[in-house]
Amino acid sequence: SYLDPSANIFQQSINIVSNQTGSGHDLENIESRMFSLESDQTLVLPSGGDTLMIEKDNNNNTPELAKVSTINVGDRLIIPESFSGGDILEAILKSDEEQYKEYEKILRKASSWQKVLLNYKNDNNLNMIDLNSKLEKIGIKRNIATIRSWLNDPSTIAPRNREEIIPKIFSLDDSSFNASKSCLKAISKIYSARSEARKILVSNVENKSIENNQSTLKIDINATRFNFNIIEVRSVADVNVQFKHLYHLRSYEELKEINS
């Protein structure tokens, strides 16, 4: 009997993701779905999230926003090429200079928890292991890779469980309760604004008509172009991964190079 080599590669990919992309801290693991795509790549998305797709039996080929948990083999995913919620929001806001300045001001306030953390690390001459140890003492249990991404990843807005974690971070430099509260309020505004921006982009995509063999899609918002790839799902599996391993299109060779 014929054995599909791609099925074997997908099983090996599942093994890599299961063994290499989870965390010893359960709080950092996210229930996700891993998709094997016709492009010979894999993509991991959070099970509780939603994503743009075209259903297998949709004769009109109209894109829709669907729950990741409902996506099946044969459906086509509409995958952003390389942009974030922040990029979409900035494209929308750039047509209004005052609004854009206000957004930048809120963004600075929202990132103040990162500044407190970085200053604490630098002022006390701590390496990442020392910092991790200090955070554990005040009840913040995360692995070093997560803490590093808090400090260095520009796309990071807030840690998971932010209502609990951010006040603890502000306590490192004896900041007032109000400073922490103000930061949390700004973070909520940023998430809300990005969510609204994403809705605008999604409605632009949903208004498009897609051909059967179409593999790319372009959307323009205020002179900013957003590119998407349209790729069919070949296989699906349930996995648990850290946030940093979500949303990446990876070949089998790239998966093999992952270190958790």
Q: What labels would you give this structure?
A:
260 residues; alpha+beta; 8-stranded antiparallel sheet
Instruction: Quote the beta fraction.
Output: 15-25%
The secondary structure category is alpha+beta
Outline the biggest β-sheet.
8 strands, antiparallel
Rg over CA atoms, rounded to whole Å, is 21 Å
Beginning-to-end CA distance, first to last residue: 37 Å
Rounded mean pLDDT is: 85
| Count of individual beta strands | 8
Uncertain regions: pLDDT < 50 for 5+ in a row? Answer: none
Tell me the overall shape.
Answer: globular
The sequence of SSEs as H and E is HEEEEEHHHHHHHEEEH
Count up the helices. Answer: 9
Q: Share of helix among residues?
A: 40-55%
Task: Give structural notes.
By secondary structure, the protein is of the alpha+beta class. It has nine helices and eight strands. A hairpin with a 3-residue loop joins β1 and β2. α2 crosses α8, α3 packs across α8 (177-206) and α7 runs antiparallel to α8. The protein is globular, with a radius of gyration of 21 Å.
Task: Give the helices and strands, then pairings.
Blueprint: H1 5-20, E1 29-37, E2 41-46, E3 50-54, E4 64-67, E5 76-80, H2 85-93, H3 97-110, H4 112-123, H5 128-137, H6 144-152, H7 162-170, H8 177-206, E6 216-221, E7 224-242, E8 250-251, H9 252-256
Antiparallel strand pairs: 1-2, 1-7, 2-8, 3-4, 3-5, 5-7, 6-7
Helix pairs in contact: 2-8, 3-8, 7-8
